[in-house]
Amino acid sequence: MKRQQRNSGLIVAIAIILSLCLVVGLSVCGSVDRTRGTQHSRAATPVATPLEYRVSTRLEPVSIPAHTQITLFDAIRQVESGGNSHAVGDNGKSRGPYQISRAYWDDACEYAVSLDIELRWPYDVCVYWPNYCELIMTGYWARYGATTDEERMALHVAGPTGIAKMGTSKEIQAYIKKVRNCFDKGDVR
Q1: How confident is the model at residue 122 (pLDDT cuts 50, 70, 90)?
Q2: Which domains does the chain show, CATH number per domain?
Q3: pLDDT reading at 153 higher than 80
């Protein structure tokens, strides 16, 4: 009987700890009320929500069709991490499902701020969340003017000079081929 009570107590303790972790994670990254598209944050200044960031008219010239976004994001995630949200690569420099570096993250956030979209998403926490990463990637691609899937892939793998190096870099061409293979095979998780 005591063993059952101890196990029950342990289960309750674990549930409480997991709940607290979720609350802390959402408060750090900001939680979104998806029914109204509003941001709930303790920050004094407004913070961009995923909905606001996606539909911002300022990103309109390089907006990506929704059907392309999902497929491209899925394929890149598969190539970069095999779908593992907690992956760490490049000797610890790249993290999360899309293997985004701190420099990439900061670059996209800086661009958003230049458009009066204030992002307060800490890299160390939010880089592991696919939805935040996809918004960061969209901002990064917009900053550097990517208009095709190949340009987006080149920027993702090679940084700001990726588009200029597309025709000459075997590394970029190999990466594009890998991602394209995921499209063709439908091999995404």
Answers
A1: very high
A2: 2-185 (1.10.530.10)
A3: yes
**DSSP states along the chain:** -HHHHHHHHHHHHHHHHHHHHHHHHHHHH-EEETTTTEEE-S-SS----HHHHHH-GGGGGG---HHHHHHHHHHHHHHHHTT-TT-EEGGGTEETTTTEEHHHHHHHHHHHHHTT------HHHHTT-HHHHHHHHHHHHHHTT--SHHHHHHHHHHGGGHHHHTTT-HHHHHHHHHHHHHHHHT---
Chain centroid, CA 111 distance in Å: 15
Sequence length of the chain is 189
Q: How many CA atoms lie within 13 A of 62 on its CB side?
A: 18
Nearest to 98 by CA among 48, 61, 139: 139
Q: How far apart are CA 50 and CA 67, in angstroms?
A: 17
What pLDDT is stored for residue 67 in this prediction?
56
Residue recorded with tokens 């190539």: 79
**Separation between Cα atoms, residue 156 and residue 162, nearest integer Å:** 8
pLDDT mean over 172-185: 90
